[in-house]
């Protein structure tokens, strides 16, 4: 009996091994993707990509180097191809595209990772996604945001200025803007989502919600990168591992607040109150759980993104004293009270925001999509159904044929008619494009404008601290970017 069990095990292991060998032989010698340039190992394994993205935290730089070495189409794994081609980018990321988000997005879900139902960002089913998107989008138009939530942004920006000033006064003038901007962005998006401000600025980094975002970033980021390992680790009774995913229930629990405030159970309205009010006219509507889930997802998606781009904006401006003075002079001329609409007309400020989003948009990494059922012809190559194709804004934004001296932060490039050029419009994608374009882009733009204005009005003559260097601000990233040194310290002028 025992020997026949061993025989079955041996045969199964052997069959599995042979199947793997056959798969590798197929991938290397017969797959259509073998015709696409790439490193020698691409037909065998995608581990080097994982290593550079997760362990080295250089996903976008590594992918960019791949393009520089192998060209616009690069096979980086047996079934995965990086693409740097404007025509293909527009096709893959158009409205109603058949190229759907890959299943890997589901691992960024707070339900926990990889478990349905999925939030707006993580949903891969196009019908379910467009039903939710259509409803939630009503709360994110620029006009609606300005009318209903601009005051919240002004208020939280003002609170952040006060917090920085107080910290600087007790810390020899030094503040870390990379600590303050997430508190501000977290307060803003939480107020919109939940109808109540967590006052993270006033309460600092100990706030439970802020701690939950940070945990989610790391824990769900790991699950997104290594889903198979995650499925093993999540069962192990090790407290530090359990903690890695402990931010998810906090977000969902907090989301219950959004349900309460959206249904007129309190005076504190939130964006979902509008979504539901309008949904009464159509069907279907959002369930209570969908509201809670999406409130959590949007808070997560809307905190570190805006905060990190804002951090890089301040660093880029303070790295160039001429630009700093020009910007300080421009914003100083605004009459109080100023509106977002007024700020949007300032040429230097807006050029600085655009240039920041070009070089330091918070999510410049490859955006993976499946090739649809019928396969696809892109750039002269045939792609079988199910192949993962990914374009990244990091590379599109550093195309020397579109942006001269692409690695240089030069806001003046936006002062002429660059933005209206067709090739620029086609490659400009800090917020993604098409059906899955960032739903929070108008909010992010508004926060970037108003926070930049307040910062350079309030702290005229601010300088980089000695610890803030090109090396400390080197971009690390898996999905979102972050400064290599984990901080961006600034010396504020003393009165
Ligand atoms: C500078 C700030 C931001 C940047 C650079 C950014 C970037 C992006 C990008 C590139 C995508 C597309 C991802 C993909 O196609 O795979 C995206 C999607 C998304 N973003 Fe943002 N984002 C920012 C701010 C925000 C804010 C403030 C919110 C919250 C309101 C938000 C919520 C979302 C959501 C929910 C999606 C998924 C939309 C969908 O699939 O329908 N983002 N963002």
Automatic annotation (TrEMBL):
Key words, A-Z: Oxidoreductase
CDD domains xrefs: CYP_fungal (cd11059)
Protein name stated in the entry: Cytochrome P450
Pfam families listed in its UniProt record: p450 (PF00067)
Family of this protein: Belongs to the cytochrome P450 family.
Domain of life of the native organism: Eukaryota
InterPro entries named among the record's database cross-references: Cyt_P450, Cyt_P450_E_grp-I, Cyt_P450_sf, Cytochrome_P450_monoxygenase
Coiled coil: none
Family annotation (PANTHER family): CYTOCHROME P450, CYTOCHROME P450 MONOOXYGENASE STCB-RELATED
């Amino acid at each position: 009996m025992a020997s026949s069990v061993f025989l079955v095990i041996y045969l199964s292991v052997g069959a599995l091994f042979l199947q793997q060998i056959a798969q590798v032989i197929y991938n290397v010698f017969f797959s259509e993707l073998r015709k696409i340039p790439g490193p020698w190992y691409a037909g065998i394994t995608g581990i080097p990509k994982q290593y550079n993205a997760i362990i080295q935290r250089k996903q976008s730089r590594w992918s960019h180097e791949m393009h520089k070495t192998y060209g616009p189409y690069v096979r980086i794994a047996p079934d995965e191809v990086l693409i740097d081609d404007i025509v293909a980018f527009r096709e893959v990321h158009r409205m109603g595209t058949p190229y759907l988000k890959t299943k890997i997005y589901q691992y960024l879900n707070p339900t926990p990772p990889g478990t349905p139902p999925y939030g707006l960002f993580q949903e891969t089913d196009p019908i379910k996604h467009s039903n939710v998107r259509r409803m939630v989008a009503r709360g994110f138009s620029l006009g609606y945001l300005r009318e209903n939530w601009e005051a919240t942004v002004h208020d939280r920006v003002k609170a952040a200025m006060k917090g920085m000033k107080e910290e600087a006064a007790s810390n020899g003038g030094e503040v870390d803007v990379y600590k303050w901007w997430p508190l501000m962005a977290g307060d803003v998006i939480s107020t919109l989502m939940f109808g109540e401000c967590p006052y993270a600025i006033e309460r600092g980094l100990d706030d439970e919600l802020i701690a939950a975002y940070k945990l989610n970033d790391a824990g769900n980021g790991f699950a997104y990168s290594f889903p198979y390992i995650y499925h093993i680790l999540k069962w192990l009774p090790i407290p530090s591992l359990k903690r890695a995913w402990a931010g998810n229930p906090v977000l969902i629990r907090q989301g219950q607040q959004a349900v309460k405030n959206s249904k007129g159970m309190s005076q504190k309205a939130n964006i979902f109150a509008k979504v539901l009010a309008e949904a009464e006219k159509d069907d279907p509507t959002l369930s209570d759980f969908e509201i809670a889930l999406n409130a959590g997802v949007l808070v997560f998606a809307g905190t570190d993104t805006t905060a990190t781009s804002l951090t890089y904006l301040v660093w880029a401006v303070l790295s160039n004293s001429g630009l700093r003075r020009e910007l300080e002079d421009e914003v100083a001329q605004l009459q109080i009270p100023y509106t977002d609409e007024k700020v949007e007309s300032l040429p230097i400020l807006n050029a600085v925001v655009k240039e920041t989003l070009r070089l330091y948009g918070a999510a410049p990494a490859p955006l993976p999509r499946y090739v649809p059922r019928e396969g696809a012809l892109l750039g002269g190559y045939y792609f079988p159904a199910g192949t993962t194709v990914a374009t990244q804004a990091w590379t599109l934004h550093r195309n020397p044929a579109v942006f001269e001296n692409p690695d240089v932060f030069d806001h003046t490039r936006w002062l002429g008619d660059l933005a209206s050029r067709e090739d620029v419009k086609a490659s400009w994608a800090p917020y993604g494009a098409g059906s899955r374009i960032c739903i929070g882009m108008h909010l992010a733009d508004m926060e970037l404008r108003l926070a930049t204005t307040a910062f350079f009005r309030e702290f005229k003559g601010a300088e980089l601290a000695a610890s803030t260097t090109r090396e400390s601000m080197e971009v690390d990233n898996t999905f979102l970017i972050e400064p290599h040194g984990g901080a961006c310290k600034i010396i504020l002028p003393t009165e």
